[in-house]
Amino acid sequence: MGTGTVRASEKLAALEARREPQRRWQFDAFPYLLLLPSVALIALINIYPFVTGFLYSLQDGTLIQAGNFVGIDNYAGLLTDPEFQHALWFSALFALFGVSGSYVIGLGLALLLNQDIPGRGFFRVALLMPWIIPSIVSIVSWRWLIADQSGLINEMLKLVGIGPVYFLSTGGWAVFSVIVVKIWRSFPFMMLSLLAALQAINREMYEATAVDGAGPWQSFRFITFPLLLPVSIVLWILMTIWSVNDFETPYLLTMGGPSNATENLSVLAYLETFNRSQIGVGAAIAFTTMLILMVFAIIMLGTQRDQETA
User: Fold this and answer.
1) What's the distance, Cα to Cα, between the start and end of the chain in Å?
2) Neighbour count for residue 127 (Cβ, 10 Å)
3) What is the Cα–Cα distance from 75 to 170, expressed in whole angstroms?
4) Nearest-5° angle of CA 58, CA 60, CA 66?
5) For 243, which of 95, 117, 258, 275 could close a Cys bridge (C-beta 3.0–4.6 Å)?
6) What span, in angstroms and rounded, lies between the C-alpha atoms of 301 and 233?
7) What is the pLDDT of residue 2?
8) How many CB atoms lie within 10 A of CB 297?
9) What are the Cα distances from residue 65, in Å, to 72, 281, 286?
């Protein structure tokens, strides 16, 4: 290569170096223009209802009239409202037993279906049916099964000299029934998610522990469950949020009764907004529920980070 060619290359490189800062600071608005319709749509669907609902919670209006600005009076009133306190207690009870019950059943079925058993493919699909069936169909079917007098379960109990059991008209039995239906509807999601996590575990780890003399319980305790824990925490967060926000299970099964026994925060917010025309109180209940769930999610995600760094 000649000297002239080398000098030309050096001059070209110097020129490109002087142009580089200009290129680095150049602003290209075209990508942002392409994102603008999506951002506008998200703002219309999410941000606008959020802001509007929060403004409603600061007013004493109804579905017909906007009402006056009352500040945090709607939130302060919830602290001394016995109905809200009961709804908060039942929401916690509903989420606790619903999540724990669906997790235990889902984990047990996931462990079973992860083994080489006959008909495994069929059972994987069949056990998803409670999650696939529409809520209105499954819950109305359950209501027919556990009806107080003529339900199929009570008819079967009569054959053995038991009953009738008032599943839907007695407070304790109504709470029990709503939780059972929630577990039945939720365990397939837990099962499917945990089964996917189990299949991602390296089988060589179990072979190594078997060589060392570890049994099934030791393998589950020291290998399976620790490796499932990060996924489990995410599942607990999601299922808790879905349980607290679950409107259709308690409302379609018992309509929040009897005597508000199965009235959770979602049902109470609905009743305050549409049955009692207190849209400000209903919005305050909804935003209070959101804050509680946010705090719970933050605590659980912090626990997950601690587990990953331990």
Assistant:
1) 60
2) 19
3) 31
4) 95
5) 95
6) 8
7) 53
8) 16
9) 19, 14, 20
- 175, 180, 182, 184: which is closest to 257 by C-alpha? 175
Q: What does the DSSP assignment read for 21-67?
A: HHHHT----HHHHHHHHHHHHHIIIIIHHHHHHHHHHTB---SS---
Alpha-carbon distances of 98 from 1, 200, 240, rounded to whole Å: 78, 26, 8
Beta pairing partners, 59:
69
The pLDDT of residue 61: 84
Burial 267-285 (b: 16+ CB within 10 A, else e): bbbbbbbeeeebbbbbbbb
pTM beyond 0.90, yes or no: no
Phi, psi for 59 (deg, rounded to 5):
-125, 165
Question: What are the helix (H) ranges across the chain?
Answer: 3-24, 30-42, 48-57, 73-79, 82-113, 120-126, 129-132, 135-145, 152-159, 171-199, 203-211, 216-219, 225-244, 248-254, 265-270, 279-309
The contacts found for 66-70 with CB under 8 angstroms, 24 or more apart, are: 67/279, 67/280, 70/280
Tokens encoding 146: 């556990």
The predicted structure's pLDDT at residue 306: 77
* Burial state string for 155-183 with b = 16 or more CB within 10 A and e = fewer than 16: eeeeeeeebeebbbebeebbbebbbbbbb
Choose among 238, 275, 240, 239: nearest CA to 255.
275
Residue ranges in the chain modelled with pLDDT below 70: 1-26, 308, 310
- 214 touches 136 (CB < 8 A): no
Q: Which two tokens stand for residue 202?
A: 């390296």
Q: Which residues pair with 191 in a beta bridge?
A: none
Could you give the CA distance from residue 107 to residue 198 in angstroms, rounded to a whole number?
10
| Residue 81 identity (one-letter amino acid) | D
Instruction: Give dist(CA 237, CA 287) in Å, integer.
Output: 18
